[in-house]
Every structure is written in structure tokens, then in C-alpha cells.
UniProtKB/TrEMBL annotation:
One of its GO terms (molecular function) is protein-arginine omega-N symmetric methyltransferase activity. This is SAM-dependent methyltransferase. Keywords: Methyltransferase, Transferase. It comes from the Bacteria. InterPro entries: NDUFAF7, NDUFAF7_sf, SAM-dependent_MTases_sf. The keyword Methyltransferase applies. GO terms for biological process: methylation.
Length: 379
């Protein structure tokens, strides 16, 4: 995956410029500086203009990123096996951020084969455009299988279900924090000064500026010891939104529920290792890394690695039992992805070779196998 240095389509650039104007006004109203978490929230989720509000935002080879369900349907088949008992007991499946609908399609297909279809499949989706795409893809299958397909605008106060959140946590807003000698600071966003009259009339540009820690960042850093260097700075991210969101969902789960969370990240000791001194925050556009995450708000995906120690702590604090916490490769192998592979195609056939290559991407350490974590918790 290389660096992106191209031009945005005209319509996309215009939407980004409109969002930049809106963000610049909010920064001015806040006194000229905001935490990056605010900028990320607006860039990704602002109604009509944010990245996940875009109707043309695409997953897959022609989009900005690939998720595991787009790589192989066997990912969903394995998850379906793990969650089958909760589906059978509760009759409800819930997916957060269903993307292209590929994972839902694979889960329902496998549950149908196992004879444990849910009565209802509920999707929680922030993008109206994606929800429309999901309906177009999934409604015919749901009707054929006799499953009620619904989109939840808000969570019930209490529900029992098989729950999936695949690559949801990494796009929750993060605060950028750092150390410089004995100092601990927060790196936020300001409107960059325009050097010329032409620049002043263009869309606002943004720049970084350091300030003392905000209360939210300081609270999130409790229990985290950031590395320090006498002759340089160390940057990373904290995401108080992640454990807060996990608790919000976990506290609503009734007995019989199982929840699978999948994302890229590490346990805390590895995430904040001294060698990771530039943090994990990145932007993506058309499968290319965008180094300047402040450029083109709303047009690029923004993401940061997940602190899975915080995730597991939040689950347990909410009364859930963590049944598994494994690297994705270990998880998929333990739960039979190779067996699912041999069922899919005749070993040695062209179809088998193609499917095996896809599985390799999911399980190999140098691909997604080591980088992604899977947590399964239940009540």
C-alpha cells in the first residue's frame, strides 16, 4: 500500500471544502484550537458531509479499503460458527457498521446451512447511503430465508443477541497525545494561516498545535505510561470513546448474548511501545495512505489502532465474561477456517487455490493474522 498524492474528484473536493469551512468556523468559535478527537468526529460523521455520510463511499477493490468479509466469505462463516449458539438461543443477530453488507450475507448463509437462522437481523448504521446499499444487497436473501431485516436508529435498553462489530472501534475519535522530555501534551488542530490572497479565498487548511492535556485526554491516559526521551518526542493516541462505546453496548446485553469484536490493534504494552514513537493515526484514500490526516476532511478515512486492553477492561467492568481474546490468525485457525476451505472447493482446483490465497491474507502474521485482534465476550 503506497502513498496517495493525487487529486480528488471535483464533487468530492467540493464537499470536503464545504466541510472544511464548517470545521474552521467551529475551531474559531472554540477559541482557535480543538482536540483532534473533535476534528475526527466532524470529518467522519458530520451529517451530509462527513466521510461516513457520503453516498459514494465504497468498500472493496474500488473503494478506500478492504475488510475481511470482502477478502473471503470464510471469515463470516467462522464467525457464524462461533456465534451460532447465541443465535439459536436468542433469535436475534445485531451488526454494528455493516459496510457493504458482505459480512451479513456470509453470516446468514452459514447460519442457514447450520439450521440456526435468527428471526431478525438488526443493523446499526450511521450512513444512510450505506444502509440503502445494504438493503439492496441483503433484502432478497433475507426474504428468501425468512429473516426480518431491520435497521436500528437507537439501541433497545435491553436485548439478547449474537452481536458483531467488525472494524468499528478503529474509527472512533482519538486524542493525539505525546511526551517531550518531562512534558506531556495534547496535539490538536488549528486553522492554518493563509499566506496569500488566493490562499485566503480557498478552502481552509488545518495545522497541528500543542496544548496542555484536555480533561478527556488526561483521564484516558490514566494507567498508561507513555515512553519518554530526553532528545525527542513520542506521539500516540488515546480513545476514551472506545471503552465508553463498549460499555454502552455491553450494559444492554441480556443473558444469552455473545459479542464478537474484531479490529486492528494490540494489547496496551505493545501499542505504546517505545519504538512506535509516531503513533498509529493514518488516513486512507483509494487504498493509499494519506500522511496528512488534516487534509481533505470528509474525503479520506481516518483510523487509529485500538487499545484492546481498554476494550477487555470495559467488557469485564460491564459484567461480561471474556471467552476469547486472540490474534485473528489464531482465532480463525482454532475455529476451523481450514476445514471451511476444504468444504468450499476441491483441494488442488483453481477455485481452491484462489480461496486459499484469500484465507492466507486473513491468517498470516505478515498480513492480517497478527495485526487484527478478536475478542468474544458474553453474558
Amino acid at each position: 500500500m503506497g502513498q496517495w498524492a493525487g487529486q480528488l474528484p471535483v464533487e468530492t473536493a467540493a464537499r470536503s471544502a464545504a466541510l472544511a469551512q464548517r470545521i474552521a468556523a467551529r475551531i474559531a468559535a472554540a477559541g482557535g484550537w480543538v482536540p483532534f478527537a473533535d476534528f475526527m468526529q466532524w470529518a467522519l460523521y458530520e451529517p451530509e458531509l462527513g466521510y461516513y455520510a457520503r453516498h459514494d463511499q465504497a468498500f472493496g477493490p474500488h473503494g478506500d479499503f478492504l475488510t475481511a468479509p470482502e477478502i473471503s466469505p470464510l471469515f463470516g462463516a467462522v464467525l457464524a460458527d462461533v456465534l451460532a449458539s447465541a443465535v439459536a438461543e436468542t433469535g436475534l443477530a445485531v451488526e454494528f457498521g455493516a459496510g457493504s453488507g458482505a459480512l451479513a450475507e456470509d453470516l446468514l448463509t452459514r447460519w442457514h446451512a447450520l439450521g440456526v437462522l435468527p428471526q431478525r437481523y438488526a443493523i446499526v448504521e450511521v450512513s444512510a447511503g450505506l444502509a440503502a446499499r445494504q438493503a439492496e444487497r441483503l433484502q432478497p436473501l433475507a426474504e428468501r430465508l425468512g429473516v426480518e431485516l431491520v435497521w436500528w436508529q437507537r439501541l433497545p435498553e435491553r436485548f439478547a443477541a449474537a452481536v458483531v462489530a467488525n472494524e468499528v472501534l478503529d474509527v472512533l475519535p482519538v486524542h493525539v497525545v505525546g511526551t517531550r522530555g518531562a512534558e506531556t501534551f495534547e496535539r490538536g488542530v488549528v486553522v492554518a494561516e493563509s499566506g496569500t490572497e488566493a490562499a485566503a479565498s480557498a478552502a481552509p487548511r488545518f495545522a497541528w498545535a500543542d496544548r496542555p492535556l484536555t480533561p478527556a485526554a488526561a483521564s484516558a491516559l490514566a494507567g498508561i505510561e507513555l515512553p519518554r526521551s530526553a532528545d525527542g518526542e513520542y506521539l500516540s493516541e488515546v480513545a476514551p470513546a472506545v471503552p465508553a462505546w463498549v460499555r454502552t453496548v455491553a450494559e444492554r446485553l441480556a443473558p444469552g448474548s455473545l459479542w464478537a469484536l474484531i479490529d486492528y490493534g494490540y494489547e496496551r504494552e505493545i501499542l505504546y511501545a517505545p519504538f512506535r514513537s509516531r503513533g498509529t493515526l493514518q488516513g486512507y484514500y483509494r487504498h493509499r495512505v494519506v500522511e496528512d490526516v488534516l487534509a481533505w476532511p470528509g474525503a479520506i478515512d481516518l483510523t487509529a489502532f485500538v487499545d484492546f486492553t481498554a476494550v477487555v477492561t470495559a467488557l469485564e467492568a460491564s459484567g461480561l465474561t471474556v471467552h476469547e481474546w486472540r490474534r485473528q490468525g489464531d482465532f480463525l485457525l482454532r475455529h476451523g477456517i481450514l476445514e471451511r476451505l476444504t468444504e468450499r472447493a476441491e483441494p488442488g482446483s483453481a477455485a481452491y487455490v484462489q480461496a486459499a490465497r484469500a484465507v492466507q491474507r486473513l491468517i498470516m502474521p505478515h498480513e492480517m493474522g497478527e495485526l487484527f485482534q478478536v475478542v468474544v465476550a458474553g453474558r
